[in-house]
């Protein structure tokens, strides 16, 4: 059953792209956070730098490994559910890390759980959204969603470094958890599975109306 069309008419595709842009930014910020946490964790717990870096390495490895399988998961399970649950898992895993007291717990939360969950919110998500919602401006929108990774690092890194310096490492992990937790319902509410689910069509190229050629005046 097709639901009533939402506001913004065909421009609703931009609302979907905006929500996905924020989700991709959050995933980029999560992946950038371990670089900020190295010194604070070393100072707080006395862990060696190799153990701390190993968790970050595992997280990056699983982030890249999950990407190819995320597309199949979105096809069978749905984009909306996959992204929402991934953001919730990102929030839970990073939030639980605020209670950690041993290196293996950092590995489990930021390495394994956050690695898998953030891998589902990767560039394959941007490509899927663009292919479903846009016919016109596909290259532009894919470029903008690709830029979300750099934008997320640019925004999150200075902020997280400031929090780590003036507060503690717990402030960093709780900030990342809060951002992911807030974005989960945003994606669930604003991102339908397909345009047809809300009575829309993918954003198409503007149609041009051709006018018949004017009749020439006969010369005497």
Give the topology, please.
Elements: H1 12-45, H2 49-77, H3 79-96, H4 103-119, H5 123-133, H6 138-166, H7 169-190
3D architecture notes:
This protein has 7 helices and no strands. Helices cover 73% and strands 0% of the residues. The protein is mainly alpha-helical and 220 residues long. It has helices at residues 12-45, 49-77, 79-96, 103-119, 123-133, 138-166, 169-190.
Determine the N-to-C terminus distance: 66 Å
State the helix count.
7
Number of strands: 0
What do the pLDDT scores average to?
Answer: 85
Instruction: Give the low-pLDDT segments.
Output: 207-211
Give the amount of beta strand, in percent.
under 5%
Order of helices and strands: HHHHHHH
**Rounded to an integer, what's the Rg over CA atoms?**
22 Å
Give a short synopsis of this structure.
The protein has 220 residues and is mainly α. 73% of the residues lie in helices and 0% in strands. The model is unreliable at 207-211 (pLDDT under 50).
Keywords summarizing the entry:
single chain; 7 helices; 220 residues
